[in-house]
Amino acid sequence: MIRSLTKCLTLVMLLTATVAAEKTDETATQLRDLKLTSVNGQLIAPFADSSTKAVTLIFVADTCPVANAFQPSLAAFHKAYADQGVACVQVHCSSLVTADEVKKHVVDFGITMPVVFDPKQKLGRLTGAKVTPEAIVIDRTGTVRYRGAINNLYAGYGKKRRVATAHYLQDAVDAVLAGDTVKTPTTKPVGCFIHYAEK
């Protein structure tokens, strides 16, 4: 009886692991073959360019004060890594905002990197983004190498440090570019929760 139960549990665990692995592989394939369209009509297929070593998706929201506070830092990050094979894309993942509002946000904050409007929240669900701002770093295999906060400027919502002392996104991208392991692959982002509409 116990032996049979053990065999059943082992089989269930193996099947669960197999399904999880298949889901991970499927997600990696979709991220590797990522094709997006910016709010300005620009086609974005970052890994179609052989020089692209990593893609950084940054989930933002026009009404999130924390995400908006990071726009200068994101602009500097984009400028610093654009020539190093790092594609940066900001993503508005909400069904509560319009394309015109996203375009206005781009103009108001002088955003120069590509910006994608994801009203059906497909990209958000695919990557598992939960907060704005939240950064996700993907390597050429479609593997998510980092997800979480941009840095530690915010210790909590409404709790802002004078300056950031840990630069998680930058460190993760540097590791990917160097072919190293990302030492801190996950951090807890601080900001505004993404509301996902029911399917």
> Helix- and strand-based class?
alpha+beta
Number of domains: 1
- Following the backbone from N to C, one meets helices and strands in this order, namely HEEEHHEHEHEEEEEHE
Largest sheet: 5 strands, mixed
User: If you compute it from the alpha carbons, what radius of gyration comes out, rounded to the nearest whole angstrom?
Assistant: 19 Å
Oligomeric form: single chain
Strand order of the largest sheet: 5-4-3-7-8
Rounded mean pLDDT score: 89
CATH class: Alpha Beta
Shape: globular
- By CATH, the superfamily comes out as Glutaredoxin
CATH-defined topology: Glutaredoxin
Core attributes:
37% helix; 11 strands; Glutaredoxin; 199 residues; five-stranded mixed β-sheet; two-stranded antiparallel sheet; alpha+beta
Break the fold down into its secondary structure elements and pairings.
Layout: H1 2-32, E1 36-37, E2 43-44, E3 54-60, H2 65-69, H3 71-81, E4 86-92, H4 99-108, E5 115-117, H5 122-127, E6 131-132, E7 134-139, E8 144-148, E9 154-156, E10 159-160, H6 168-178, E11 192-193
Parallel strand pairs: 3-4, 4-5
Antiparallel strand pairs: 1-2, 3-7, 6-11, 7-8, 9-10
